[in-house]
């Protein structure tokens, strides 16, 4: 009953109040708690930014040290959850594994009361700490290597590389270029206001469901190619294009909307200008490839594709620019990260935003259950006993 507006895709519906991330779409600005995201990438550590997003302020030296200690403590994962990994098929997509194992944390922490502040804080820290471990274990499972535990002497970004690439048989030295790149990747992906996955987490949480289950729902929502799965899809698209000479034909297919072909890594619901995260990522890719002495032929394809698209009326009129996913995959490839892990890394970073948004929603009492309406377009009331069935 009553009136409501029909807004498919929620293009003009504000669903909550939030003090976490600010985006100015037309200007291409993104701020975390008021701080410019490109500045944070330059000047902050991933864990500092996680604290900022979760708590609301930059941590003091003592607060950061305490937070780091807490996160390290919570990086341990219950052996029952670890045992789950052995049951996935060897070619299972790591995102499928992530949905399952993060959801399974809710079996371990089933007594949790979202309305209790201490419980909530604990859940946020546990998720920030454990999801990177689960992410790396999903990868290790897919290549049949032993899972590595994090090390207390490494930073958040360094630990990710260590758990991904170290084995018990050899000394592993974290490459500082790679650690810097991972730190930047994490910060760039940590939050982005009410995107599909964050809204999913909020809606799931609005019923007071277990937060680990809510984050698993967020992971599922992120997986698709229109959202976090775009970073994987971009690489597949660039590989299919193959060489810069094939770019014009591909762009012609996109413009003709041939079988729904889209330029992956382009376009955004909110940004109608160059995504500021993409600008940072583009610079970072060039720097990382140069510092590692890697030449990736896909970079040339991506650069040509961007040049051709940005000069074309189709993209200009629709205000379609590269988004954060356009260049990120080329950087991750240079670090030796397989394509199937790209979206997992997005999920691992976005977990910080998801828990911060969930905590904000619950702690501020924005707990009216999410319940969109619909326009019903089905049959009028009819009698089962009088119906003959479809035949
Ligand atoms: N390539 C070609 N045409 C596009 C693209 C694209 N990437 N994106 C939008 N358009 C066209 C679309 O066909 C439509 O044209 P028309 O007016 O002729 O029908 C117009 O632009 C508006 O598109 P829309 O689908 O209504 O836009 P949206 O706000 O609903 O979708 C989007 C946003 C990000 C899902 C979309 O731009 C897209 O599919 N991009 C490719 C996938 C991608 O890179 N996703 C990552 C987004 S950023 C990171 C994240 O959120 O995970």
UniProtKB/TrEMBL annotation:
Domain of life: Eukaryota
Protein name: Citrate synthase
Taxonomic path: Eukaryota, Sar, Alveolata, Dinophyceae, Suessiales
Residues shown, of full length: 54 to 444 of 468
């Amino acid at each position: 009953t009553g009136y409501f507006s029909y807004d498919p895709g929620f293009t003009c519906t504000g669903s909550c109040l939030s003090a976490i991330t600010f985006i100015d779409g037309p200007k291409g600005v993104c701020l975390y708690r008021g701080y410019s995201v490109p500045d944070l990438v330059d000047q902050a550590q991933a864990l500092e930014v996680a604290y900022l997003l979760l708590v609301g302020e930059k941590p003091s030296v003592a607060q950061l040290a305490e937070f780091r200690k807490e996160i390290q403590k919570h990086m341990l994962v219950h052996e029952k959850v670890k045992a789950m990994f052995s049951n996935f098929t060897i070619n299972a997509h790591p995102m499928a594994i992530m949905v399952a194992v993060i959801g399974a944390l809710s079996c371990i922490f089933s007594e949790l009361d979202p309305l209790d502040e201490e419980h909530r804080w604990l859940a946020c820290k546990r998720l920030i700490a454990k999801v990177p471990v689960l992410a790396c274990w999903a990868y290790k499972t897919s290549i049949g290597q032993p899972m590595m535990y994090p090390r207390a002497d490494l930073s958040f970004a360094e630990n990710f590389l260590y758990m991904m690439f170290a084995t018990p048989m050899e000394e592993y030295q974290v490459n500082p270029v790679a650690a810097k790149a991972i730190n930047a990747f994490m910060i760039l992906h940590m939050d982005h206001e009410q995107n599909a996955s964050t809204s999913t987490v909020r809606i799931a949480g609005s019923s007071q469901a277990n937060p680990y289950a809510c984050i698993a729902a967020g992971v599922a929502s992120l997986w698709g190619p229109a959202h976090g799965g775009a970073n994987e899809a971009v690489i597949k698209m660039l590989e299919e294009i193959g060489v810069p000479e094939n770019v014009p034909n591909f762009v012609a297919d996109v413009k003709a909307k041939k079988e729904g072909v889209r330029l992956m890594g382009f376009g955004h619901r909110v940004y109608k200008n160059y995504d500021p995260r993409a600008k940072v990522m583009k610079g970072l890719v060039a720097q990382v490839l140069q510092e590692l002495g890697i030449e990736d032929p896909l970079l040339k394809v991506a650069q040509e594709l961007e040049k051709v698209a940005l000069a074309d009326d189709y993209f200009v009129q629709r205000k379609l620019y590269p988004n954060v996913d356009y260049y990120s995959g080329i950087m991750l490839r240079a670090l030796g990260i397989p394509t199937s892990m790209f979206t997992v890394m997005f999920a691992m970073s976005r977990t910080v935003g998801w828990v911060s948004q969930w905590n904000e929603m619950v702690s501020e009492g924005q707990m009216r259950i999410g319940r969109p309406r619909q326009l019903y377009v089905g049959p009028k009331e009819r009698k089962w006993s009088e119906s003959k069935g479809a035949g």
